Amino acid sequence: MHNLKLFLSLIVIMVVLGCIQQDTRAPTYTNVSSNVSAAMINEVVSFTATWEDETALHSYVFSWTVGNNCTTWMNASAVKFEPEKRGVASYIAAIPEDCRGKEIRWKFYARDKAGNWNSTPEYKLTILGEVEEIFLRALEMGEKIEKISTNSSFFLEISTSEFSFSMKMNVTFNQDKKLNKRSIFITYTYPTTTTFMYYSLPSGTFMCVSGACYEVEEESLPQLSPASNLTNLTSMRKMIESKEISLKGCGVAIYINRTCDCVEFEISPTLVPELLSLWKNLTVKQLKQMMCLDRETGIALHYRTELQAISLESMEITSIVEYILSSLSLEVDPSVFELPFPTGFYSIVQPLKEILEAFPLSFI
């Protein structure tokens, strides 16, 4: 009788065990991403991935190639999932100095409580090089843009011992290289005692002033402004190589939800007179320039220049020019180029041409 009970108990245990299915399915992942596609050294980057498991998640490990001069894989410490069914794996770290100008590969591993492992594919993160490389890369990207539409806020302030002047401008800029068309729409605020002359633009450009627009039929100036010289990639490389212009990184910033790299300029005194050719008889004491370059387009999202100088008449002059983009799009509505010829445009032509020509419109 005892043997029979033992036999029946063994049968029950075997039936129960047979009904239990062993967990052999590994966790699955979705939404694998990093907050940037390129980064500077020392920049803090966030990596994430969402994991799910039918029974219970256990832990995850982040791995990236930052070992041995950024050539070998290194694993971070394992982190337990909470909750267990569905969880987000995350890793936040600063880019090591050794990775400057290189490419980092990264991925996540995860396992469930049954010991099943899975990993995401390898992803790549470009690490930007020296600040000169960052700047030249931005110029290259900017030259490749076929269509672009931007809205910017400009601010200009000039002060001397004898007078002061300030002006605000909102500028909408559209460009379509295939159509060989540009349009610039400007609204401005300035003292009623101050007047301006609007400069000429290359053929095919539409110039708009407070709603009145006209198309330039003949090119009367070879460039938009003196600052256009800086957009010439070949000349910029030469100036950097000859140390006429030196660049310094000033960190990473966010404008209009876009990441940009900040670059500061130090310009050789021998080069300053050429850049400021419109400002005659000036002795420059100091010239500071800063711009934050969008990583996807190379466009300056923020630009600021400060000039301190002395005129021939010993008048001290301080000038600040600044703009910040409020929107950027790589699509342009063709209708912006179909603008009527205004009436009375030429009544707008007024003096002080130099001030508007000094605006860095070539960086829009």
Question: What can you see in these coordinates?
Answer:
The model is unreliable at 14-20, 192-200, 219-231 and 341-364 (pLDDT under 50). Helix content is 14%, strand content 46%. It has helices at residues 2-19, 131-144, 233-241, 272-275, 353-357; strands at 28-34, 38-39, 44-52, 57-67, 72-75, 79-80, 86-94, 103-112, 117-119, 123-127, 147-160, 164-176, 181-189, 205-209, 212-215, 245-255, 258-267, 282-294, 300-311, 316-329. It is mostly beta strands. It has a ten-stranded mixed beta sheet with strand order 15-14-13-12-11-20-19-18-17-16, covered by helices on one side. The protein is built from five helices and 20 strands. A hairpin with a 4-residue loop joins β8 and β9 (117-119). It folds into two domains: 24-127, Domain of unknown function DUF4466 (Immunoglobulin-like); 131-363, outer membrane lipoprotein receptor (LolB), chain A, CATH 2.50.20.
- Taken in chain order, the helices and strands follow as HEEEEEEEEEEHEEEEEHEEHEEEH
Biggest β-sheet, characterized? 10 strands, mixed
> Can you count the beta strands?
20
Low-pLDDT stretches: 14-20, 192-200, 219-231, 341-364
For the largest beta sheet, what order do the strands appear in spatially? 15-14-13-12-11-20-19-18-17-16
Task: Output the radius of gyration.
Answer: 30 Å
Q: How much of the sequence is in beta strands?
A: over 45%
Report the mean per-residue pLDDT as an integer: 76
- Total helical elements: 5
Q: Indicate the overall shape.
A: elongated
Total tally of structural domains = 2
CATH 2nd-level architecture of the largest domain: Clam
CATH C-level class of the largest domain = Mainly Beta
Q: What is the terminal separation in angstroms?
A: 95 Å
CATH topology of the largest domain: outer membrane lipoprotein receptor (LolB), chain A
- The helical percent reads 10-25%
